[in-house]
């Protein structure tokens, strides 16, 4: 599972997109998505060009319009080749979204959000999962 979140310098955030490893997601997953969130799907659960395009075209661009964000806008992305498609490039060019691809797989170093927000979030998530696995799950199994 992967979560795509875009925000600007004013700390405004778009609706997130969560990518699940399904070709047809279960109804429970679809029904549990918060209002406005986007559901992406790929066989692996990783971001692909078609999933990224769907988010840019129907999520980010719509949000930019609704929030009256002045254009052009700069969108920093991981330069992984799966995100850089001709379709995305054309759409962004037509809609005044400047794609700037950082060297692939370096966002954990070069993007401020990855360093200041997502790294601590991932650390806390891992700690919570570990705690659940070590303390909560055994208690549940013992009592049922």
TrEMBL record:
InterPro entries: DDE_SF_endonuclease_dom. This is DDE-1 domain-containing protein. GO terms for molecular function: nucleic acid binding. Residues 14-135 form the DDE-1 domain.
């Amino acid at each position: 599972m992967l979560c795509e979140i875009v925000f600007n310098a004013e700390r405004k955030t778009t609706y997130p997109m969560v990518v699940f490893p399904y070709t047809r997601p279960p109804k429970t997953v679809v029904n549990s998505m918060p209002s406005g969130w986007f559901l992406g799907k790929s066989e692996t659960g990783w971001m692909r060009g078609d999933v990224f395009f769907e988010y840019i075209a129907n999520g980010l661009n719509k949000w930019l319009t609704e929030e009256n964000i002045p254009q052009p806008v700069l969108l920093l992305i991981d330069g992984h080749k799966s995100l850089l498609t001709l379709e995305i490039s054309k759409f962004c060019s037509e809609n005044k979204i400047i794609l700037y691809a950082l060297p692939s797989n370096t966002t954990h170093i070069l993007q401020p959000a990855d360093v200041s927000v997502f790294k601590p979030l991932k650390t806390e998530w891992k700690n919570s999962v570990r705690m659940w696995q070590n303390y909560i799950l055994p208690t549940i199994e013992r009592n049922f």
